[in-house]
Amino acid sequence: MRDLYIDTPQALHPFCQQLRHSAWIAVDTEFIRERTYYPQLCLIQIADEHQVACIDPLALQDLEPLWVVLNDSAITKVLHSASQDLEIFFHQQGRVPTPVFDTQIAAALLGHGEQIGYAALVSALLGVELDKSQTRTDWSQRPLDHAQLVYAADDVRFLRPVYEKQVAELERLGRLGWLNNDLETLCDPERYQSKPSEMWRRIRSHHQLRPMQLAALRALAGWREEQAMALNKPRKWIIGDDVLLELARHMPSDLNGLQRIRSLEANTLKRQGEKLLSLIRAAQSEPRDTWPHVRVHRRISAEQEALLDALMAVVRLCGVEHGISPQSLASRKELEQWVLDEQDIPLLHGWRAALAGRQVQALRQGDARLAVQDGKLCLAKE
Question: Which of 48, 56, 155, 241 is the catalytic position?
Fold first, then answer.
């Protein structure tokens, strides 16, 4: 395959015209986000059956010809672990390219585990060991040297045969359609939209706070998110999670109280002190019935633990039977949520329900039992 480096409109336009004739293309991106809120797109790699291209978005002011290709519903975009790439495309153009095929999701259906890395998958399916020396490279630096470009191109060069092998095997097993629900969820724009009012849920230990404190945390975390988005700076550069948690826990009423908050930097106190106090006061004045609540995690009883062991055994049996990693069907944590709180879990839907969910439900409802036959554990109907 011929490798291209595209950094001019004159090269981009004919390449994109060629892609319009493809039924599917392999896609990957290189980006950095250590110093920004939004990921900074540094390179886009695309392969069809004839050539591989590394497209330089830092040199190209207009990527519209490429967006037209990525948004063409007649072209399947093949990616590995696609969520971060799709997030970038969403923020770049306000939409998620469809349709998409994620080789990591497909790998789970073919017994490779739930989150196998690209290099490991290439090794398993193609017997090729990829160079990992550029994993920590700064993709924003120019010029990119030969080793960097080869490394980037390989991310789509081998994605093509991986995709072809996976599709052939999924079709042989009658599992290709099983991917549809997972891929539709992956391409849902809601997944990539920032929701400042919900960011408090991502702060560790928030469940330790009382409802009024949670209201303060919600206001503070929402304000921080909006600031980070507006300034395109990492959240922690605005104010750290630990500081937000302490502010919500103590809810200081004046600057003297703010000064007693550990880790609150002097510059932040000086520039944003009054704003932080106003957010806390506003949260305190909210009606009680609008305060957030979190589900208190109940301790699992010995009887429930035994039931959980049995349910997990069924998941493992189903995984072995169908050649799929049990973790791809359901995790122990998910089953615990179901046992404790009747929470909806992926096991109860789609292909997971067909392979294991119904059997697990049958055991829990008493319509099946675990038995030992010929020295092997099995699930028997009542």
Answer: 155
Q: Is 85 a catalytic residue?
A: yes
Which pTM was predicted?
A: 0.90
The answer to whether the beta carbons of residues 146 and 90 sit under 8 Å apart is: no
Nearest to 355 by CA among 371, 382, 379: 379
Does the annotation mark 138 as catalytic?
A: no
Distance CA 223, CA 365 (A): 46
Q: What whole-number distance in Å separates Cα of residue 54 and Cα of residue 153?
A: 7
CATH number at residue 341: 1.10.150.80
- Calpha distance 283→222 (Å, rounded): 12
Shared-domain flag, residues 74 and 188: yes
Domain CATH number, residue 134: 3.30.420.10
In angstroms, the Cα distances linking 173 to 4, 12, 167, 184, 197 are: 37, 39, 10, 21, 44
Task: Tell me whether residue 37 is one of the annotated catalytic residues.
Answer: no
User: Which domain covers residue 118, as residue numbers?
Assistant: 2-192
Domain count across the chain: 3
Instruction: Classify residue 52: in a domain, yes or no.
Output: yes
Beta-carbon neighbour count of residue 116 at 10 Å?
A: 20
User: Cα-flanking dihedrals φ and ψ of residue 46, to 5°?
Assistant: -140, 140
Q: Determine the average pLDDT of the residues in 175-191.
A: 93
Token pair in block for residue 49: 């059956």
Catalytic, 367? Answer no
Report the distance separating Cα 298 and Cα 15, nearest Å: 57
- Catalytic hit among 7, 48, 56, 85: 85
> How many residues are listed for the chain in this entry?
382
342: annotated active-site residue: no
pLDDT digits (tens, 9 = 90+) for 97-120: 999 999 999 999 999 988 899 999
